[in-house]
Write a structure and sequence with these properties.
Elements: H1 3-9, H2 16-23, E1 27-31, E2 34-37, H3 39-43, H4 49-65, E3 75-82, E4 85-96, E5 99-104, H5 107-144, H6 150-179, E6 188-191, H7 192-210, E7 213-218, E8 224-227, H8 229-246, E9 250-258, E10 261-268, H9 275-278, H10 289-292, H11 302-312, E11 316-322, E12 326-334
Parallel strand pairs: 7-9
Antiparallel strand pairs: 1-2, 1-5, 3-4, 4-5, 6-8, 9-10, 10-12, 11-12
Length: 346
């Protein structure tokens, strides 16, 4: 029920507390020194106990801080963090039968936010195991089939799609890690050329298929960087793959350093993006018009992870783009990591 409907109905209801319980609304009721709240409503969607406890304590604090003027206040905005994201919770405030009620009016949004992340986390992990088994059986069948068998091409296509689905699930698992604050960064020391060569070799079939000229410019031929090797490989791979998808015939990867840190620039001469797309491009599940009509595959997760990984390194990522004139993405990783004892040479 919306805030307006709650307010309009409250005077016509004899037992407001029972009415709110029936509606399944989260509320906190103050009656002198007695405090009651409908905890079960938020527990229905398995919200963390810490979230509920913090929320109740913040409402209590608001109530005690504003007791002298509480009867004149109709609503209150109280902020709380859920999965590292600050959410504004809007409470409608009204009194009845010498009781003061704080009723959460946007609880459906909170449930949506929590379920959205929980679904990502649960589904991605539950799908990974059966997919691994399916992939294993497909690979076994391909080994025992002769290459000229008419089924070989079909099964090969199924395996390709299985790999693509596996990548999507892996990305969703990484998303869930960032939301649950369980990402671990390694302090690898490696040469930039090791990183770049591995990426270019991996993407060479896609580069050749589109006939794209990829130029690599590494200042002073090569230099060492301190960062998480695998995560940086994902970042640069994702940016180059996007340039392959949306670019025309040229991509330039520039790598250089200065006293502050390390820089990676991916420049293409593709279609570019308008400003309204750029401002939301790093949000989760953001898809462009061309992606939505399925001409280009994607889940809208890649750039979200790029930004999260770079920020986890205390770095920055910036995009500049003009329609029909190409796109430039610059990644900056500061020299904030101390050298680790283990050396990763790629």
């Amino acid at each position: 029920m919306s805030r307006e409907k709650l307010t309009s109905h409250k005077n016509s209801i004899d037992n407001l507390q029972e009415f709110l319980d029936t509606l399944g609304k989260f509320y906190i009721c103050f009656e002198g020194d007695k405090v009651l709240y409908n905890e079960e409503v938020l527990k229905d969607v398995l919200l963390p106990n810490k979230f509920i406890t913090n929320l109740v304590e913040k409402v209590k604090k608001f109530y005690h801080s504003n007791q002298d003027k509480i009867k004149k206040i109709n609503s209150a905005i109280i902020s709380e963090y859920l999965h590292e994201k600050e959410i504004n919770l809007e409470f409608v405030i009204f009194s009845k039968d010498k009781k003061l009620f704080f009723v959460l009016s946007n609880d459906s949004y909170i449930r949506y936010e929590f379920l959205r992340i929980n679904i990502i986390n649960t589904l991605s992990h539950e799908l990974k195991t059966p997919l691994t088994i399916i992939k294993g059986y497909i690979q076994y069948v391909m080994k025992i089939l002769p290459n000229d068998n008419w089924m070989f091409g079909i099964i090969s296509k199924i395996l390709d799609e299985t790999y693509r689905l596996e990548e999507v699930i892996s990305e969703l698992i990484e998303v869930s890690k960032f939301y649950s604050n369980s990402v671990i960064l390694k302090k690898d020391v490696f040469y930039v050329s090791s990183l770049v060569n591995m990426i270019i070799n991996k993407l060479s079939p896609k580069i050749k298929a589109k006939g794209i000229d990829v130029q690599v410019e590494i200042k002073h031929n090569d230099f060492e960087i301190i960062a998480d090797f695998e995560k940086m490989k994902y970042v640069i791979s994702e940016l180059i793959e996007n340039s392959i998808k949306y670019g025309k015939d040229k991509i330039c990867l520039r790598c250089y350093e200065n006293p502050e840190g390390f820089f990676f620039e991916v420049i293409d001469n593709g279609r570019g993006m308008p400003k309204d797309v750029i401002k939301n491009i790093f949000n989760l599940f953001i898809r462009t018009e061309n992606e939505l009509n399925r001409k280009i595959y994607g889940l809208g997760v890649g750039l979200f992870l790029v930004k999260k990984i770079v920020e986890a390194h205390n770095g920055k990522v910036d995009i500049k783009s003009k329609l029909n004139r190409g796109t430039t993405v610059k990644v900056f990783i500061p020299r904030s990591f101390s050298k680790s004892k283990s050396l990763f040479a790629g």
